[in-house]
Design brief:
single chain, about 325 residues, alpha/beta, Cobalt-precorrin-4 Transmethylase, domain 1, Rossmann fold, five-stranded parallel sheet, about 20% strand
């Protein structure tokens, strides 16, 4: 049996916002019983979604898919446009907001900037639920989305306009820094967030990958294709020196043919990927290789977010 050295990146997997969002659904099911409706995937991971579905959660994309009901309606961790709770109230839904507090921070920031007369640039990925939710905090066409340096190049503002930027929480730290640098050179007076918008978990997971990447013949990122932070980890791994990097949703996705000549394999997980998927992948690797696992820790995380008041008596 061939030998495989596995570098297991830490921190990896669930962040505080994801853990809180999943707890909210589970506590709502425990307190109110099934069904509990969830608008959009509570977090971007199919294993998590299917597990909650098996317990009685019903996932929908829009509120109009929900019948008139007294059952709880939960908004996902990514955040929602302001129109969503307004519509929920109009239909007399009992709703619980599972938006990550760090996403809510960006929402509040955007509102304050708008109230103070700033033109707002949002650095993020078009179509991502978090971006839709953030832009939806303000009137239509008052936030300009920038995805690339080229987008930043094309921006035009008059000299007397106050300009600011905010960012999606799950971006590549390095890519975002490049765009911010470009914006700062183009608009020297641009206002930056008081505190970094990219969340601690995204930053920590990318830093952990950078620490091991140049030792890896291959690096596996456990996560979903629609998970922004997971996809960014693949990009970070490749740029930081991993000879190859792949996104895998579960052990069934392991690219065995690509591991034939691999002697050192990196493994990490995006912020919405449960540790059980990592365990299953490690176990599968152990069936084909004599594995030697090394834990590489670059940060310790002990952050936890409060559960909404509606559910605190179930904790």
């Amino acid at each position: 049996m061939p030998t495989l050295r596995i570098l297991l990146a830490e921190p990896r997997g669930f962040c505080a916002g994801v853990d809180r969002a999943i707890q909210i659904v589970e506590l709502a099911l425990a307190k109110y019983g099934a069904p509990v409706y969830v608008r959009h995937e509570i977090v971007h991971n199919q294993y998590v979604v299917e597990d909650l579905r098996s317990k009685g959660a019903i996932f929908v994309e829009e509120l109009d898919e929900i019948p008139d009901t007294e059952a709880p309606v939960i908004f996902s961790a990514h955040g929602v446009e302001k129109a969503v709770p307004v519509e929920a109230s109009r239909r007399n839904f009992f709703y619980i907001d599972a938006t990550c507090p760090l996403v809510s921070k960006v929402h509040i920031e955007a509102e304050k900037l708008y109230e103070n007369g700033y033109k707002i640039i949002l650095i993020g990925h078009a179509g991502h639920p978090e971006v839709i939710g953030t832009m939806g905090q303000l009137p239509k066409d008052t936030v300009t989305l920038v995805e690339t340096i080229e987008d930043a190049d094309n921006l035009v503002f008059s000299e007397n306009e106050q300009i600011s930027y905010i960012t999606q929480t799950t971006l590549s730290v390095d890519d975002t820094a490049s765009i911010v640098d470009h914006l700062t050179k183009k608009f020297p007076a641009i206002k930056a967030p008081a505190k970094e918008d990219i969340c601690y978990a995204t930053t920590n997971r990318q830093q952990a990958v950078k620490q091991i990447a140049n030792e890896c013949d291959c690096l596996l990122v456990v996560g979903a294709p629609n998970s922004s932070n997971s996809c960014r980890l693949v990009e970070v791994a490749e740029r930081a020196g991993a000879k190859s990097a792949y996104l895998v949703q579960s052990a069934t996705d392991i690219p065995w043919a690509k591991l034939d000549k691999v002697s050192t394999l990196g493994v990490t997980a995006g912020a919405s990927a449960p540790e059980i998927l990592v365990d299953e992948i490690i176990a599968s690797l152990g069936e084909k290789f004599q594995t030697a696992i090394e834990h590489v820790t670059t940060a310790k995380e002990n952050i936890a977010f409060k559960i909404p008041r509606q559910l605190t008596d179930t904790v």
